[in-house]
Model the fold of this input.
Amino acid sequence: MGRVSTASQSSLSSLPSPGRADVAARLRDALLAADFTADGLLELLGAPAYAALARSETVPALRATRGDTPLEGLVRLFLLQQPVAHARVADVLPVEECLDSGWLVRVGGHEVAATVDVRPYGGPDGEDWFIVSDLGCAVGGAGGIGNRDEGVVLGVGGASTTLAGITVRTPVASALDLGTGSGIQALHAAQHATRVTATDLNPRALHITRLTLALSGAPEADLRQGSLFEPVADETYDLIVSNPPFVISPLSPEGSRLTYRDGGMGGDDLCRTLVRQAGERLNPGGYAQFLANWQHVEGEEWTDRLRSWVPRGCDAWIVQREVQDITQYAELWLRDAGDHRTDPAEYAARYDAWLDEFEARKTRSVGFGWITLHRTDAAEPAITVEEWPHSVEQPLGEAVRRHFERQDYLRTHDDAALLTSHFALAAEVVQEQVGLPGAEDPEHVVLRQHRGMRRATKVDTVGAGFAGVCDGTLSAGRILDAIAQLVGEDPVSLRDRTPAQIRLLIEQGFLEPAIP
Done:
């Protein structure tokens, strides 16, 4: 049994018809009945083969699906993109309807093949969703890495799940998924937004997003074609999310342009433009959340570069998760396009073009991370730019929301107001003491979070004692007075020097304002 040809087609005629909602609903029911879900796949394939499939390695999954159960047939058909005998799936799927609407095609006389990749995806509350994408991208081969045409639409990846995890999920009236791709962000947004708009420069992506929403049983989105904010004109939203084509690639023809990753602007201009224009598209109190790449330029602090992107009227939290030198970065994206499999001389020329671009822009390295804006219209915006390469606990959406809530609290409370306020130690915070065995006092005390960002911060004995007592019952001033009496320190002096430490503990999420 040979592999189906998976060369990507720019024509929308190669995709299923999204207008047949009845077929999508019947196909969804059939997939669920056969346990074609994220949990069902994990049980069938086992953890090693399941993880290998996420890395586009199919051999373990092929070996795990050599039986004749309905689920094994569906995995081969929709995930491994192998032709399957018509008779094998006739009792599992509405085959004729799927053939008529384009989800399947006939291969030879007795086999059928999928026209798109359909991947089970578990929603945050246990929902069974399906992400549709172009054939080949997840399994290599003719239409996969190394032979992608410009309009290819990828499925679920690490970047898309990262963005979904950090997004604030409060109920909103309107949400915008800018650069929707396969529709995963629009699918998430549909669960808590009354109205979802999804845009993309690529009409193929809009078509596939409609398939993803239909097959997942989600409401239809308002789909619009165009670049950046052009399709929505001056409309405003409560939530904007975007996993944009952020790759910093050469503008020359040698750059192997791919719509899903290459934005067509020089350097990091696309990400900068997107962030700067987002502020005026946000309703008061709204959030805009992006993944982005940015240049580390010779003679410029990267933190200053990112601060300059933040639009007026918005608080911002920018987190740099990773930095690559320009050679690592170029090699990563040359491999992504399959350029490493070309003629060595051609590969060298393309590699050279990337390095020429970086040299011309005085770029030393490239950062990757998250950017969140919160429109507050405050006179003094709170902008946090930090490097955090350490592990975090996803989902982080609630942690992001509370970060901005704390920033607003600190902005509106001076030191005197802090001392009259009540605080509680955040959940999952532990204290660690480090020192020589037998020593009377520790060398230093560390507070450590086991949730969210999983931060750790050094505190002095006063800070540790203060945090340990905070349970919302006593004001900060009264706690400091008690500590001063205990350690024999002047209470006025302690009240004067401690608010800065309290502010840091609040900002980093170790302490939370409490209602007495």
About this structure: DSSP finds 20 helices and 19 strands in the chain.
